[in-house]
Amino acid sequence: MTRKPLWIGTSWKMNKGPAAARDAVGQIVSMAIPEEITPFVIPPFTSLETVASTLSGTRWHVGAQNMHWEDDGAWTGEISPHMVRECGADMIELGHSERREHFGETDITVNLKVRAAIRHKLRPLICIGDSAEEYEFGVTHETLARQTKIALHGLSAAEIGTVLLAYEPVWAIGAKGRAAEPDFVALAHTRLRNVLAELVGSEAAQRVPVLYGGSVSLDNAARYTALDNVDGVFIGRSAWDPSGLEAIIRSVVS
Ligand SMILES: O=C(CO)[C@H](O)COP(=O)(O)O
């Protein structure tokens, strides 16, 4: 039995259009979720409404993978916070390293999006992470502190209390990634908690869930969730098949 509520979820990234999403969410909705788990799923935009409507009224949180910070306007190809809400999502993933690396996302645009999310009552799941180079040069903490402080800039303590942070080392993500050692994650999360304490005080900082992501699998998930300052895991490939997600959920509560 685990000792704290754990956020466990997955982003499907650019996988599962409406037909595949319908099939997957049909399996997800019938999963038995232990009460100490807060589950979430983040489908691509085209499947968002299907997934959110199927999971409406359940304990699942549903998010989109990105959004613009403006409410509407001439922003070809973009999706607004209103649209995300209208599809039934209650969460929004922001600042994933794939968006920072390939689509020009910056600390500043992440901050604009976090503020927009809060205005629209979407819970931001803010991804932060060090590059392989930053890790090699020993500046992981500096990078995470900078990304966190800028993402949360201008928010009140109460607003910061509504966000989730996910530490996802860039070098740990994807098929070529190497899962971070639990000891390293423990240290990174403890330091992150101190950054949050600087912003909102130590008691409020304890209430911000900080998740780990990057090559999380059935083999290693429970080693992360057992750590004091890890409040859940954000899973990619190993949870795209709903049975993989279900097995990981079971592994962290047994
Ligand atoms: O965002 C992630 C989780 O959805 C992250 O990029 C980890 O992906 P994974 O390495 O495929 O688990």
From TrEMBL:
Keyword Nucleotidyltransferase: no
This protein's record includes keyword Lyase: no
GO molecular function terms listed in the Swiss-Prot or TrEMBL record: isomerase activity
UniProt keyword list: Cytoplasm, Gluconeogenesis, Glycolysis, Isomerase
Pfam family, one: TIM
CDD domains named among the record's database cross-references: TIM
Pathway: Carbohydrate degradation; glycolysis; D-glyceraldehyde 3-phosphate from glycerone phosphate: step 1/1; Carbohydrate biosynthesis; gluconeogenesis
Reaction it catalyzes: D-glyceraldehyde 3-phosphate = dihydroxyacetone phosphate; L-erythrulose 1-phosphate = D-erythrulose 4-phosphate
Listed EC numbers: 5.3.1.1
Subcellular location(s) per record: Cytoplasm
Listed InterPro entries: Aldolase_TIM, TIM_sf, Triosephosphate_isomerase
Family: Belongs to the triosephosphate isomerase family.
Subunit structure: Homodimer.
Identification of the protein by name: Triosephosphate isomerase
